[in-house]
């Protein structure tokens, strides 16, 4: 590679001037070609089945396997895009069909208020003749008294009347739609039945299955009927998969597939729809002239001020809110927005050319989490928003929803504050004091008794698998953590192994030893003795332990090289279907037998090319099976331990759509690759013992006028905007894109609320709610000032993964570059009065070019390297599934000098002193041969030791006499009885503790092969195929100043 060497100690710097000078000889990799206008397909939306009127009763238990077909817009895809649900009109039609036969009570058709309303995110006035000013659904309620919350109302239950399985696939309205697959054969998998409750006012409430019981959209009034319910919105309403910024209007060069900018205009834009005046709002009233920190107002010329990277971790911007509001706001680690000042209109957002979206880490482990146990969970009657700190109390008895502005009554029970034991101060209740809160859900949030924790392990035991020796590690780890598996007395466990056949293990209580049952018919897999294969862990613990002890030895002599992964997954799915749960699959090679068999597709010669690489699945088998799993509340986690190409692009679908996770240990071998063994052990421990939520759904609501349209993460989108998460884990992140559907001119604040309904491992139904509040602004400058560059970069990365898959890698790379060019051009032309030379950026975006350059060099999107295809796919999986903080670390690692650690500025945690060295720019310019530098790249830590590193560090930290004695492969630091050793180890341990995965530490000498990896992460330097930061800035400037 042309990477310059490390500058000699004290010698002339070979830094940016030398190496990063003039535009590169290797040619610009940034072709800024026209970006395809990948308008996402717009779906005709169908009615929601949210049936949210809570009645204090326990619904009928129904099989959990079905899903209301009318709720059916079921989008799947790595990012799952929906057009916001728009027509209010079809509600009722779809949902109130004849009752199913077993129904004890004939549901009457809806009278009065309809429980079906679109989501708050989906107002579509164009398609919705609404009474003027009547967004508040209450406006057309004939009798308000019908709408008093009455949890104690008499309730009759009846099986649902609405979802007739026979309707599926018949019409647009009724059939679930799959954005990606379009495969009608999938539809049956998402057909669910539900329950209708007949409330005392005669209106029917349909409790559909889990996907809807969270309470969905508007529980509102009957709406005017649309004569043409099938046309919800024109395609023009759909949002491009990449923000306007991507739609480069003036393609600087080549490829010529651009679409005229005019076609990119949003059909939506500001809407004529007027919302009811807000009236008094104690929050907005308290807004006053606030100003940012003066630093935040600076305009920076990046070509002059090149070192913009702060020496301490970059903090998210603080929304420009009154401190009384801000102090109640959601922690940005859990919930943040790309723009902390929300543009008032889509037109303004379009001008800014920045993506608008949310990044969530909803199930993050929290030290403090207020949990409310109350029979009354107070929610907006219209939009089902949970009461939160940003609602306003009109008086003691009424509160106004901050999402739809409906005025709601304060229930009697809510008047009493359990914390202060005072009556009459509802605004002091914990629900109104905490932006993050968890509710114990009463029975109406369940469709069946909470499922038991069920864990099924599926092991590859082919010759290849046995060779890697992984079974030893995994079984040992399971033995060690068996008592720590989250669960209770109901916990169930089971095991399947497979090679060319499938092996089941009967662990029935009373057996003297586990009994192996072999099924060799992989064409039509059946489950022998289903009742004894998933067993109660407590009752059969000894048998389970026996099995785990003997399993690694059972196949040591195997000669079976084939892998029937697909049939094994089918068997596992059948076994788990009645309960749901977590399936952990360990695979070491390309599946070769039966359904789901795959062929090698990787062409090593094309690894470095941005074109023609196989990022898409070669079969839809894994996706379809994942959707089956999702329907039965089964999540599949894939552990891929393979030295060879295993087509992760195809295999990964099994986890992506079932809300599982993918773990990848390339070249795992128990002897040859001890660091992978260590990594697997550590990560398994976390995996087996971390918190888990079962049969979960998540919905994100936002203030009326905003619309959520594209989701990123591992899940399956049911019913337009409900994320189906058979499992939820504390290490998963999600992102969504938004647009401004209606002008927000009448409001100063908007809110976003995520609600995650899940079953805990203790069998409790719980709801975790996060609410974020942000100001609305009317000028472009304010939008820029509030930009959150990390969130923007994270969202762009998610969008770029989609673009890579749907178009091409080079397209995605162009789009990333264009995002910078377009937003900075917009800034330059609109908010800078005099056109200064240089590359002028707002302070908030000072790191934008750097982070985008880092993304271009990230494993997901890089070119010119020999990145294996599976490694690239895995990196893309990580982009989609990791919380932002880890994604940023993987993209732009932190570099520290560590040979001179001191206690200055150190932090203290539990009597441990943790040094906090400054973060350095990622350039060899910052290295010196007489030092040692630690690079924290998220999943890997690299400690580069310079040739002239001080003797003190060598002996006191590394425990070696001289440089030459540093082992070629060193992946651990000795614990020496020296302060230097203690500091270094404390720092590294602390870094590791910050994350759920286990970063391997590599100590790197100058001659180490790993040095190339270290230098690869030097984002600011030029590599063979990528520009240096300085070159990149020049390129951006050139485009911006055109
Ligand atoms: Zn509301």
TrEMBL record:
Similarity section: Belongs to the SEC23/SEC24 family. SEC24 subfamily.
Q: What transmembrane ranges does the database entry give?
A: none
Query: Main location per UniProt?
Result: cytoplasm
Q: Which Pfam families match?
A: Gelsolin (PF00626), Sec23_BS (PF08033), Sec23_helical (PF04815), Sec23_trunk (PF04811), zf-Sec23_Sec24 (PF04810)
Q: Where is the Sec23/Sec24 helical domain?
A: 788-888
> Polar residues: which segments have biased composition?
68-90, 108-126, 264-273
Provide the protein's localization.
Cytoplasm, Cytosol; Cytoplasmic vesicle, COPII-coated vesicle membrane; Endoplasmic reticulum membrane
Q: What membrane topology does the annotation report for this chain?
A: Peripheral membrane protein
- State which gene encodes it: SEC24A
Name of protein: Protein transport protein Sec24A isoform X2
């Amino acid at each position: 590679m042309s990477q310059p060497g490390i500058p000699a100690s004290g010698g002339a710097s070979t830094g940016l001037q030398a190496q990063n000078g003039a535009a590169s000889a290797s040619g610009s990799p940034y072709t800024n070609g026209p970006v395809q206008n990948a308008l996402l397909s717009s779906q005709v939306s169908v009615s929601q089945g949210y049936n949210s009127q809570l009645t204090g009763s326990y619904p009928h238990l129904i099989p959990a396997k079905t899903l209301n077909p009318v709720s059916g817009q079921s989008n799947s895809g790595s990012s799952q895009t929906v057009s916001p649900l728009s027509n209010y009109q079809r509600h009722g039609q779809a949902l109130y069909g004849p009752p199913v036969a077993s129904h004890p009570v004939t549901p009457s058709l809806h009278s009065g208020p309809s429980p079906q309303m679109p989501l708050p995110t989906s107002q579509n006035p164009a398609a919705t003749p609404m009474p003027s000013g009547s967004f508040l659904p209450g406006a057309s309620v004939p009798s308000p008294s019908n709408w008093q919350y009455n949890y104690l109302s008499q309730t009759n239950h009846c099986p649902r009347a609405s979802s007739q399985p026979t309707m599926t696939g018949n019409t647009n309205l009724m059939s679930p739609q799959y954005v990606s697959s379009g495969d009608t054969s999938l539809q049956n998998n998402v057909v669910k039945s539900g329950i209708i409750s007949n409330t005392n006012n005669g209106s029917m409430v349909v409790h559909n299955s889990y996907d809807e019981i969270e309470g969905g959209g508007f529980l509102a009034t009957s709406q005017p009927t649309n004569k043409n319910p099938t046309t919800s919105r024109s395609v023009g309403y759909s949002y491009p998969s990449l923000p306007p910024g991507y739609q480069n209007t003036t393609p600087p060069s080549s490829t010529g597939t651009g679409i005229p900018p005019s076609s990119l205009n949003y059909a939506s834009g500001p809407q004529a729809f007027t919302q009811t005046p807000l009236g008094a709002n104690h929050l907005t009233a308290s807004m006053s002239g606030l100003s940012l920190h003066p630093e935040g107002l600076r305009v920076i010329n990046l070509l002059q001020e090149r070192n913009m990277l702060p020496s301490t971790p970059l903090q998210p911007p603080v929304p420009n809110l009154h401190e009384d509001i801000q102090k109640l706001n959601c922690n940005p680690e859990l919930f943040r927005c790309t723009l902390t000042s929300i543009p008032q209109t889509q037109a303004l957002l379009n001008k800014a050319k920045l993506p608008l979206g949310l990044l969530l880490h909803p199930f993050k482990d929290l030290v403090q989490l207020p949990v409310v146990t109350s029979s009354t969970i107070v929610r907006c009657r219209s939009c089902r928003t949970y009461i939160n700190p940003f609602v306003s109390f009109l008086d003691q008895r009424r509160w106004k929803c901050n999402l739809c502005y409906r005025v709601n009554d304060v229930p009697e029970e809510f008047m009493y504050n359990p914390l202060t034991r005072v009556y009459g101060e509802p605004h002091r209740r914990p629900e109104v004091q905490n932006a993050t809160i968890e509710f114990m859900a009463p029975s109406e949030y369940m469709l069946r008794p909470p499922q038991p924790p069920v864990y099924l392990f599926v092991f590859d035991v082919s010759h290849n698998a046995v060779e890697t020796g992984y079974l030893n590690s995994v079984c040992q780890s399971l033995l060690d953590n068996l008592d720590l598996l989250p669960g209770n007395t109901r916990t169930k466990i089971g095991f399947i192994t497979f090679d060319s056949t499938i092996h089941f293990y009967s662990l029935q209580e009373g057996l003297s030893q586990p009994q192996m049952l072999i099924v060799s018919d992989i064409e039509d897999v059946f489950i022998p003795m289903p009742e004894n294969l998933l067993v109660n862990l407590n009752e059969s613990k000894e048998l389970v332990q026996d099995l785990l002890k003997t399993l690694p030895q059972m196949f040591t002599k195997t000669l079976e090289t084939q892998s029937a992964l697909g049939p094994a997954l089918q068997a596992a799915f059948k076994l788990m279907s009645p309960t749901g749960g977590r399936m952990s699959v360990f695979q070491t090679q390309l599946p070769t037998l039966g359904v789901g068999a795959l062929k090698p597709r990787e062409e090593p010669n094309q690894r470095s090319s941005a074109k023609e690489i196989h990022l898409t699945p070669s079969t839809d088998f894994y996706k379809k099976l994942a959707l089956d799993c999702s329907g039965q509340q089964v999540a599949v986690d894939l552990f891929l331990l393979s030295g060879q190409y295993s087509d992760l692009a195809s295999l990964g679908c099994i986890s992506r759509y079932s809300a599982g996770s993918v773990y990848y240990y390339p070249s795992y071998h128990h002897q040859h690759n001890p660091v992978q063994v260590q990594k697997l052990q550590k990560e398994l421990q976390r995996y087996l013992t971390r918190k888990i939520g079962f049969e979960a759904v998540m919905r994100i609501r936002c203030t009326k006028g905003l619309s959520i349209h594209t989701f990123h993460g591992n899940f399956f989108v049911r019913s337009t905007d409900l994320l189906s998460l058979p499992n939820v884990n504390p290490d998963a992140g999600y992102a969504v894109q938004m647009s401004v559907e209606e002008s927000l001119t009448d409001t100063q604040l908007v809110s976003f609320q995520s609600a995650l309904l899940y079953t805990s491992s203790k069998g409790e139904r719980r709801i975790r709610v996060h609410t974020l509040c942000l100001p609305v602004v009317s000028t472009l400058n304010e939008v820029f000032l509030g930009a959150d560059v990390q969130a923007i970069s994270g969202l762009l990365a998610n969008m770029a993964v989609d673009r890579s898959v749907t178009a091409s890698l080079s397209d995605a790379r162009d789009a990333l570059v264009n995002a910078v060019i377009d937003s900075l051009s917009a800034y330059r032309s609109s908010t800078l009065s005099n056109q200064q030379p240089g590359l002028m950026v707002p302070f908030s975006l000072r790191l934008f070019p750097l982070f985008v350059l880092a993304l271009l060099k990230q494993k997901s999107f890089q070119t010119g390297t020999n990145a294996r295809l599976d490694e690239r796919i895995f990196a893309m999986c990580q982009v989609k599934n990791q919380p932002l903080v880890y994604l940023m670390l993987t993209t732009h690692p932190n570099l520290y000098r560590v040979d001179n650690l001191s206690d200055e500025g150190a932090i203290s945690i539990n009597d441990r002193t943790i040094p906090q060295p400054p973060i350095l720019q990622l350039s060899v310019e910052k290295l010196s041969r007489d030092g040692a530098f630690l690079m924290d790249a998220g999943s890997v830590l690299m400690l580069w030791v310079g040739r002239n590193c001080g003797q003190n560090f060598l002996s006191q930290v590394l425990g070696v006499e001289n440089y030459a004695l540093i082992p070629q492969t060193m992946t651990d630091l000795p614990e020496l009885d020296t302060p230097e050793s203690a500091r270094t180890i404390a720092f590294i341990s602390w870094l590791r503790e910050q994350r759920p995965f286990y970063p391997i530490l590599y100590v790197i000498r100058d001659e180490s092969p790993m040095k190339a990896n270290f230098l690869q992460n030097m984002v600011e330097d030029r590599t063979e195929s990528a520009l240096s930061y300085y070159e990149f800035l020049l390129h951006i400037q050139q485009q911006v100043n055109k």
